[in-house]
Specification:
The chain has 468 residues and is an all-alpha fold. It has one domain. The chain is built from 18 helices and 2 strands. Strand 1 and strand 2 form a beta hairpin. The longest helix is centred in the middle third of the chain and has 31 residues. The chain is globular, with a radius of gyration of 22 Å.
Amino acid sequence: MLHKILLKFSIVIAVYILFSAVFSLLQNRTIYDNTLGMVSTNYERGGVAKRYIIYKVSDPYNEVTETNAYNWDAAYYLTIRNKLYADVDPHYIARYAFYPFFPIIWKLSGIRSSHVILVNYLFFGLGIILLSQLFMKRKSQDIFFFILALLIPSAIVFYLPYAESLFVLTFALALWGLFRKNYWVYFIGMLCFSMTRPAVVVLILSFIGTDIIYLSRHRNFRHFVKQSILNIAPVILGWLVVTAIQYYYSGSLTAYFDTWELWPKESGFLNRISDWSTEGFGMNFFALFFLALPALIYCIVLALKYLLKKAKREKVSLFGGDEAYIKGYMFNVSMMYMVALIGYFVFTSGNVLNGFFRYTMAVPFFYIILFQLPDKLEMVAVKYKTGLMLLGIAGLFISLLNIRYTGDIWRFEYLGLYMLILTVPLVLFGQYLPRKIKYAVLCLYIIPAIVWHTYLFNMYLSNAWIFT
């Protein structure tokens, strides 16, 4: 097992080195003009504050500096790192929308911005190593799916000085506690997890929704209550700790929820669908059609299946160390999390899809689903897999072509979408491919995946349209 962990850690380092090398090469004008510059453009911000204009330019990549590394959400995390929630402008309270665990760890480490990018990616790598060891241990496709997890277009978020990497790592540590039958490791991991990003309500609903489905199976209300309390106790405590910290500085128990008024809303979720960037729009639509909607169907079918079948009176505890039960339960929680996010977007984001791929694919729940799919799909006939894949692709493109915002889909800005679509047959039919062919395809996937990561990272440095 140690040999495989070391191999995975080496792969994480190799991917980061390749990312850094490609990014450095594309800072060179000659190399950029004769490669990526032939098929794409970059962005540049001009104008003044609140009246800025984003230009398309044919410039090579930017250098990472102490200034441009703190764009978008990272600017808020930097301020929280320096002074938590002190000196918040009462007319601009956006800082309360960000939870403090990541900037606290950042401050304690003393890491500079140019270095926190590497450390953040290592946090992500460690989290993915742990999740893959828990859910794909002794599986023949372990390394293949591990590499794919590092390369998929949505993984760009983990290069940014955002909280997502710790979000993955803390949840992975909590799950490690479950597998080791150590509730206190689970408790501490979940406590830190719930202080990292404001996904607390979504997670609580996911746990309770899953427990309700299980209740329809075992029909033991006392067991349901006990399990639910043990599941969500550290999550609620973490939420209360963050609320107390924000209350200390703001005098409001609803400081986080007050920030919702800052985000633009439009009436009608299906009316004039838009995004903050074309690059993110394509990936958001993939997450909707190949993750969120299938999760919704899965949860409905699961609920009906448990409700209609004869009740089983056995009481299995999530904290009893039964690996098969933990895996199945966490898969269901992860699918329920995706469903809860659909509801969140419907009721809070209007018709602006910005960030949907980040909230669904840059989270530990996505990787829990990904790493268990080989087992879940093993018994599904090829014809059904093919039919579902074609149906999803058809639905995705029919929807895209009927949305005014989409524009021309045959351009570089949609490369992330096409790279994600390519992962679908790799995941669905990988078990039928010979090992050499499978890894040959993965090798062909590496360079465009890394280039896409560097392109979006430079877009972030340019302080242009944000894709998350």
